[in-house]
Amino acid sequence: MVFSEIPLEEKQVALNKLHSIKTELAVRNWFPGNSGNLSLRVGGFSPDQFHFAVSASGTDKPVNTSEEFLFADTAGYPCETTRLKPCKETPIHAKIYRMTGCGAIFHVHTVYNSLLSEYYGDQGYVPAQGIEMIKELGIWELNTEIQIPVLPNYADIPSIAKLIPGTFKPEIPGILLRNHGIFAWGRDAFEAKHHLEAFEFIFEVVYRGLLLPPRR
């Protein structure tokens, strides 16, 4: 489906959803400075024919304006006439959409995900085991251990996107950039937010667990 064929109502619904979620996450201080970004697929779920609404570059997330999002194509380039520029991580969003067929991707910077991604950066993943919230990612095995991928945080964003296939784990709906933040995704905006909240809970538990004294 070409962008001009997507109903205006569908585009507006996507923008309204992103605005609402942005406001909710900003209250939690998950967008310090002008960090973080959100995106939502529109116009179908074909891996090679889709568009998505994505945060514009440099927006102040706690502040509501009429120029917070724009629409991009499968490569992450604007697909409409606009003076807005896609956020710098848009190529990562585009890559994840093409690989997973997901419907929404949310990227936030928090203290816990930044600290753990750096602490476990050389290992290439953050381990988490036996945490109840892992079930919220759709993984139900008792006392299971998961490995949340950590990618290097290069200044050249397309170079990061190229690394995603090599570390991608289909059962884990998220990846970390080292000392940067997490990208969490889902079938729709509700599930993506659900997964993001689960990851952030897991990160806090893992971090606080590292601070506990050894059991005698």
UniProtKB/TrEMBL annotation:
Catalyses which reaction(s): 5-(methylsulfanyl)-D-ribulose 1-phosphate = 5-methylsulfanyl-2,3-dioxopentyl phosphate + H2O
Pathway: Amino-acid biosynthesis; L-methionine biosynthesis via salvage pathway; L-methionine from S-methyl-5-thio-alpha-D-ribose 1-phosphate: step 2/6
Keyword Membrane: no
Keyword Zinc on entry: yes
E.C. number(s) listed in UniProt: 4.2.1.109
Signal peptide (residue range): none
Residue runs in coiled coils: none
Co-factor binding details: Binds 1 zinc ion per subunit.
Cofactor(s) listed in the protein's UniProt record: Zn(2+)
Keywords linked to the UniProt accession: Amino-acid biosynthesis, Lyase, Metal-binding, Methionine biosynthesis, Zinc
Ranges of residues in domain Class II aldolase/adducin N-terminal: 16-207
Amino-acid positions noted as binding Zn(2+) in the UniProt annotation, renumbered to this chain: 107, 109
Residues spanning the membrane: none
Pfam families, sorted: Aldolase_II
Listed InterPro entries: Aldolase_II/adducin_N, Aldolase_II/adducin_N_sf, MethylthioRu-1-P_deHdtase_MtnB
Entry function: Catalyzes the dehydration of methylthioribulose-1-phosphate (MTRu-1-P) into 2,3-diketo-5-methylthiopentyl-1-phosphate (DK-MTP-1-P).
Family: Belongs to the aldolase class II family. MtnB subfamily.
Entries under PANTHER family matching the protein: METHYLTHIORIBULOSE-1-PHOSPHATE DEHYDRATASE
The protein's name: Methylthioribulose-1-phosphate dehydratase
Species name: Paenibacillus vini
Gene: mtnB
